[in-house]
């Protein structure tokens, strides 16, 4: 369930962008501006928030490090 909660917001952004493009609710200039903001601001913020909330013990388990 934790994985789903971490990945779900990213897929919601993808589906929202697809719907906006499919319905042609945005001009080409607006879509380019939103793409820039999404990849330079929203996605890094979303990834940082997900990493900050993650339990450190899960990522440093000996079995995971051994498998790596």
Question: How would you characterize this protein structure?
Answer:
The protein is mainly alpha-helical. It has helices spanning 2-22, 28-53, 56-59, 62-67. It has one domain. It has four helices and no strands. α1 (2-22) runs antiparallel to α2. The longest helix has 26 residues, at 28-53.
Uncertain residue ranges: none
Order of helices and strands: HHHH
DSSP summary: helix tally: 4
Structural class: mainly alpha
Q: What is the approximate shape?
A: elongated
- What is the gyration radius calculated from CA atoms? 17 Å
| Fraction of residues in β-strands | under 5%
Q: Domains counted in the coordinates: how many?
A: 1
Mean pLDDT: 83
Question: Count the strands?
Answer: 0
Helix content: over 70%
Largest sheet: none
Task: Please describe the topology of this protein.
Layout: H1 2-22, H2 28-53, H3 56-59, H4 62-67
Helix pairs in contact: 1-2
Write a brief caption for the model:
It is built from four helices and no strands. The chain has 68 residues and is an all-alpha fold.
List keywords for this structure.
mainly alpha, 4 helices, 68 residues
């Amino acid at each position: 369930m934790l994985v789903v909660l971490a990945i779900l917001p990213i897929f919601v952004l993808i589906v929202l962008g697809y719907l906006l493009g499919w319905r042609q609710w945005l001009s080409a200039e607006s879509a380019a501006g939103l793409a820039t903001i999404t990849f330079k601001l929203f996605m890094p913020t979303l990834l940082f928030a997900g990493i900050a909330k993650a339990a450190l013990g899960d990522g440093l388990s000996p079995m995971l490090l051994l498998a790596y």
